[in-house]
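User: Quick one: structure for sequence A, then sequence B.

Assistant: Sequence A:
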Amino acid sequence: METIKTNSLKGKVPFISKFAYGFGDVGCNFSWSFVVSFLMIFYTDVFGIGMAAVATLMLVSRIWDAVNDPLIGSLSDRTKSRWGRYRPWLLFGAPITGLVLVLCFWAHPEMDYTGKIIYMSITYGLLVLGYTCVNLPYGTLCGAMTQNIDERAQINTSRSVAAMIAIGIINIITVPLVKYCGDGTLSSAQGFIGVAAIYGLVFTCCHWFCFAKTKEVVEIPMSQKAYPIGDQLKAVVKNKPFLMAVVGQLLFGFILYGRNADLIYYFKYVEGNEDLFSFFSGVIVIPSIIGAAIFPLVFKWTGNKGWAASVFSVLMGVSMVVLYFFSPNEEPLWFYLFAALAQFFFSGFNTAIYAIIPDCVEYGEWKTGIRNDGFQYSFISLANKIGMALGTSLLALVMGWAGYEANVEQSETVKEVIHHAFSTVPGILWIITAGIMLFYRLSRKEYNQIINELENMKK
């Protein structure tokens, strides 16, 4: 017990570091949330690329992820610098990725269709690689800042609160900002590249702030830094809590990003007013912040981060299913009430699902003797991206099959597809996810026992 207490004291993280770590996710969302919510509609309604091509790109790009995610994870684990293993990637990777973000939203109307497909594929592939080089070390950094399970919960709460605020700001200002920077419509090529330039700068500055104010204190024994890839893969397979985290991230990416890509289509084509997207986003900001902030309380009640995620997930799912029966134009009070509830519960789930990840590293070290933070996080990142690819690709394919055409009145079939993708489909999937997360078994008590044993082994 004394060892645990000592470790707890050593694991305290200064407030400024928690705050700065949260800002890292602000930067991530000014890139990735912007991409998830607006890149698809940019491709179809501005760049003039068909749904089938977009769906194919999203799927094929995951093959690229399958290569670069474990590679970047392994490289970050082996990075040696005066700044640590993971922080240098934020310093040097952020400005390059910010520039590639701008290139992704640079429309070229003079290109023929084949040229557009090639340009889209290259720039998106580079963006995925750049984002991996920043986001993967950033996510792994949490586990290197402390081994205290409660401190990690607070760090991830800071991250989630910051992310929810950032997502809210992005969703509120992007549509009017695109119109302001362009020709007054959401189909403005000039508007999108202007916004991308602003968001690329924010992405860079946030990660530089995170780099400057965080510190890596958890060290890996030198003998454990050069395990072959095969040995690391075997260790991953034996880590049951980690495998649950991977499954959770796969479902998380599939449901969340598929729905997020659908949002702007829902308000533009089903409700007939794309400006409602900004109002909708404004309504759910405060519930997002509160939902993220109460995660430590739910974790204290359940004593298990997976079970906390399950509580949030089932309530979120029910709220989304009910949301189908209301419209912001006809029943705005009920629509925004259930939208706020869904976001409140999502924010808690988002905090919980990311708080699980660093704890699995110690479990793996205890179980197999191998500690490989970045390598493990690469599979978390890959699972999330595979989920995103499947979710967005399936949405694009079904919309294309239903007869979607850009910038025209959609058929009732297309509208129903978009409407269900906004509410009932993700709602049911969140309820299923809640059941799956009940199988996560690493409790607070078990984790502290593991830390105690690891500390004794190192003496």
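Sequence B:
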Amino acid sequence: MKRFLPAAILLTVLCLLLCSCATTSEEAPKQFSLSRNEEKKNEIGMLVGSVSYGVGFFFPTAYDILDISLIKTDSVTGLVSEISHQRIRNLLNFPVQFTVRYDKADLQDTETCSLIVTLLVNDNVKAQGISLIQRNDTGLAETSLVLIPV
């Protein structure tokens, strides 16, 4: 009996994880049609880039975190909001390559995008950087950012 206890616990945890991923919908199921597609899928954009550490050397530890925020600013209203957020743990060395996914429907023509990156060491800000992101025909252009020690 004791032999099967770890396997039973593992199986129970896996079942709970799978059940927690299930989604429910109160809407009636949509009809399938070959002639038209009524449901428009949102396009996912990807911002790729690299972050390097500025002046001097910094050797990250397993506890350091690189916090990346993609934000938009409406040029008419001045409203600033976050589009996407990513945290990178277990940094090996700089420069750090990253990919941030975002919903292209979140960006309008009147909005500008910026990237704010913060290096957290023991939950304290060690370095920070900000970059204005350029747009191209396919979405947001690739970027590189230099962190400046705080």
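The mean pLDDT is 80. The chain is about 10% helix and 45% strand.

User: Thanks, that's what I needed.
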